[in-house]
Amino acid sequence: MTTAAIIVAAGRGTRAGGDLPKQWQRLGDRCVAAHAMQAFAAHPGIDQLILVLHPDDVDSDLWPRDPVASIVTGGATRRMSVLAGLHAAAGRADRVLIHDAARPLVTAAIIDRVLAALDSHAGAAPAVAVTDTLWHGQNDHVTGLQDRSGLYRAQTPQGFHLVPLLAAHRANTDDATDDVAVARAAGLDVAIVAGDEENIKITTPGDFARASKLMGLQMDIRCGNGYDVHRFGPGDHVWLCGVKLPHDRSLQGHSDADVGMHAITDAIYGALGMGDIGQHFPPSDPQWKGAASHIFLEHAVALATEQGYRISNTDCTLICETPKIGPHQAAMKTALAQIMGLAADRISVKATTSERLGFTGRGEGIAAQATVTLVKP
Ligand code: MG
User: Fold this and answer.
1) Most buried among 99, 130, 339, 369, by the most CB within 10 A?
2) DSSP characters for 164-202?
3) From the CA of 225, how far away is ligand 1's center (Å)?
4) Could you read off the pLDDT of 190-232 as tens digits, one per residue?
């Protein structure tokens, strides 16, 4: 059984305010649609991701390249956009989950419930039972009560077996607001599974604040610190934060002795609670002799990514009397940005002397300390 997630992101919705359609507006560290896509990309029951775009957006840099999705151009209406997604899935998937790109808080548990219900139903969709009292009103006056029993608020993803849904869509000419309506018009059985109050659809400007708050509560934020020292010895250059600086001495060490990069690397391992450089790259192992330190940093970044974390920022302080760091700060940030796959404005490299006190003050070596923040959305 192969399941595709179709993320419908072709709308132009502007009720949410801002210059861009709501699915491309930023929420936390990425756009709204990217959060929705990530939930499906990370789910073991989903085999492929299809992103339906508005024709104007296809050549833009608005839509996320990560996670990777097949790109499909949508139609003039939501139903036509879904149909384009279904055509893309046809022959490649047996089941589809159709999700609104503007619901960034969909959870693995909701996806689980929809998938499970599809084992015994043609369709399944999450919903939340209405618990508020419902009124009829006119001119700001209550004119009556509406019985709320049996009323639900519909959510997405709405899941279906592909072949009958595709037939239902082809036979349908109305501009239905959702796929459940299309499926039911064709006589398909659609089960209701438990949705989640937090699986909100971004519609108004206030929804961004609400979604950020909900996301903040779920976010796993970790801090790590690293500290390293290397002594000076004979030589004519030092490596610091990925940049080779001419100097009248060199830092001694098993690797290239890039003390700044080591501190950042250890900060990442520290945040993950996964040891330190010495454990991952033992100095006793000859293969790391003279190694370029970006190998260590790349390893730590990959480990963080594997664990589902994204590096939010890093701040490194180099402690030395010489060489002068200031003229090289920008190059160091660029080098680290490249190795860490991080925007340069999320990287800080600072330097301080120690007022000629201690081993750094006497010029016997360089110390570095670093902090990093890791975020798991
Ligand atoms: Mg070191």
Assistant:
1) 99
2) HHHHHHHH--S--SSHHHHHHHTT--EEEEE--TT-PPP
3) 14
4) 999 999 999 999 988 889 889 988 887 667 899 999 999 999 9
Domain ranges of the chain: 3-215, 220-376
CA 230–ligand 1 middle distance (angstroms): 6
**To the nearest 10°, the Cα dihedral for 211, 213, 217, 221?**
100
Could you tell me the pTM of the whole model?
0.61
How many angstroms does the Cα of residue 343 sit away from the middle of ligand 1? 25
- Ligand 1 centre and the CA of 192: distance in Å? 57
Using the mean position of ligand 1's atoms as its centre, give its distance from the Cα of residue 282 in Å. 11
The CA distance from 325 to 236, in Å, is 16
* Interval between CA 3 and ligand 1 midpoint (Å): 47
Q: Compute, in angstroms, the gap from residue 292 CA to the centroid of ligand 1.
A: 12
CATH class of 220-376: alpha beta
Q: Report in angstroms the alpha-carbon separations of 181 from 124, 172, 178, 271, 377.
A: 12, 10, 6, 48, 33
At 221 the pLDDT is 92
Range list of H helices, the chain: 32-41, 78-89, 108-118, 162-171, 179-185, 205-218, 259-272, 277-280, 294-306, 329-340, 358-361
Cα-atom radius of gyration of the chain, to the nearest Å? 27
* 81 within 8 A of 8, measured Cβ to Cβ: yes
3-215 CATH: 3.90.550.10
The pLDDT tens digits for 23-59 are 999 888 789 999 999 999 999 999 999 999 999 999 9
Residues of the chain short of pLDDT 70, as ranges, are: 14-16, 175, 217-218, 377
Q: How far is the C-alpha of 101 from the C-alpha of 115, rounded, in Å?
A: 19
